[in-house]
């Protein structure tokens, strides 16, 4: 399994990289992908929702009318949940939505997404590059050269590059991450994935552990 290496002009360099079939050629496990995406989204939740229950409402505790003889339902105090402004029954409370997954499952999820992307021909390898200064226009030209105009793309770097990151920051459909920051959500969310040549080797090593 091989992929052609492109340069920033979108031209083939004549080199190829060999991909590990145990990472890029497995049968995708959709449930593993679902679990890791669910974990990622759950971790984004603030969990600060809160409503007041009956004992937290400020109001009179006086019984509104006598218990019997009215011909209608029994009433307690004004803080009852049946009245407007009363407390809420079993309302939401602050909580942490995060949950744990084992590392082997998370590796399987990433390999599953990468294998599916390979089947869809949505992975490219780019030779190492950098910008002299942050310029969004240069990154737009790179996207266009690779045929990503109007598409969501994820660039995977081998190490942090400030100029490359800043150049892509204003592009809503483009995301730049280093190989050790990637989640399955990032891979699924991207329409096209671009690995920098040396990043794909490092990412493969992580997933083979």
Automatic annotation (TrEMBL):
Residues 46-74 are annotated as: Disordered. GO terms for cellular component: ribonucleoprotein complex; ribosome. SUPFAM superfamilies: Ribosomal protein L4. One of its GO terms (molecular function) is structural constituent of ribosome. Part of the 50S ribosomal subunit. Belongs to the universal ribosomal protein uL4 family. One of the primary rRNA binding proteins, this protein initially binds near the 5'-end of the 23S rRNA. It is important during the early stages of 50S assembly. It makes multiple contacts with different domains of the 23S rRNA in the assembled 50S subunit and ribosome. This is Large ribosomal subunit protein uL4. It comes from Chryseobacterium lacus. The lineage of its organism: Bacteria, Pseudomonadati, Bacteroidota, Flavobacteriia, Flavobacteriales. The gene is rplD.
């Amino acid at each position: 399994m091989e992929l052609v290496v492109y340069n920033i002009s979108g031209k083939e360099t004549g080199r190829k990289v060999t991909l590990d079939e145990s990472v890029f050629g497995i049968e995708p496990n959709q449930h593993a992908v679902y679990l890791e995406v669910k974990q990622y989204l759950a971790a984004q939740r603030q969990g600060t929702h809160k409503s007041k229950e009956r004992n937290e409402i400020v109001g009179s505790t006086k019984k509104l009318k006598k218990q019997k003889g009215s011909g209608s339902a029994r009433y307690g105090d004004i803080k009852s949940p049946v009245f407007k402004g009363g407390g809420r029954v079993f309302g939401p409370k602050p909580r942490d939505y995060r949950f744990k997954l084992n590392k082997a499952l998370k590796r399987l999820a990433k390999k599953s997404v990468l294998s599916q992307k390979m089947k869809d021909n949505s992975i490219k390898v780019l030779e190492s590059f950098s910008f002299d200064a942050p310029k969004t226009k240069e990154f737009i030209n790179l996207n266009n050269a690779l045929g990503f105009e109007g598409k969501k793309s994820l660039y995977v770097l081998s190490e942090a590059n400030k100029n490359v990151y800043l150049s892509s920051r204003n592009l809503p459909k483009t995301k730049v991450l280093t190989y050790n920051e990637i989640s399955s959500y990032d891979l699924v969310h991207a329409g096209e994935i671009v690995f920098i040549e040396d990043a794909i080797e490092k990412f493969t090593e992580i997933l083979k552990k």
